[in-house]
Write a structure and sequence with these properties.
The protein is mostly helical. It contains four helices and two strands, in the order H-E-E-H-H-H.
């Protein structure tokens, strides 16, 4: 990896990790193990004994996060009074969903051939979905997200 890419990647990774920790802090108690001792574990699945159990748990976590995203999206969409804003909001969300799916595909290619492939994909999708929930629920101030 070149120095130029590393220089960009490290700050971007730090920002992403900070956002993930903020999102995780808002989640339910079951997800409180997402944060431990001031550090944030990006991986969601921690309580399983076999790879099959981890795969199932990761899928359930993603389905739960996705259901919450749908609810939050509908709530935020209902707040928009202008039809033009509603259309723009829907278009932006559709583009985000496409991006999430593409990122999930990328993660699946990284884990190709392994039994943990679906776990990694679903964990990544859960992570991105939680970031989106945080983004939708947190007002954007001139200085950025809180």
């Amino acid at each position: 990896m070149s120095m130029k890419k590393t220089t960009f990647f490290l700050p971007a990774a730090a920002i992403a990790l900070t956002l993930a920790c903020a999102v995780a802090a808002q989640e339910t108690k079951r997800d409180s193990d997402f944060m431990s001792q001031g550090q944030c574990n990006v991986r969601v699945v921690t309580e399983c004994e076999t790879q099959g159990e981890c795969n199932i748990r990761a899928l359930k976590d993603f389905e739960s996060a996705d259901a919450k995203l749908k609810k939050v999206f509908d709530e935020e969409l209902a707040k928009e009074t202008s039809s033009e804003l509603r259309e723009a909001f829907i278009a932006a969300h559709r583009a985000w969903l496409f991006s999430r799916e593409a990122d999930g595909h990328y993660e699946s290619v990284l884990g190709e051939g392994g039994s943990a492939r679906s776990q990694y994909v679903n964990e990544r999708m859960t992570y991105l979905t939680r970031l989106r929930i945080y983004q939708l629920q947190t007002p954007f101030a001139p200085q950025g997200w809180k």
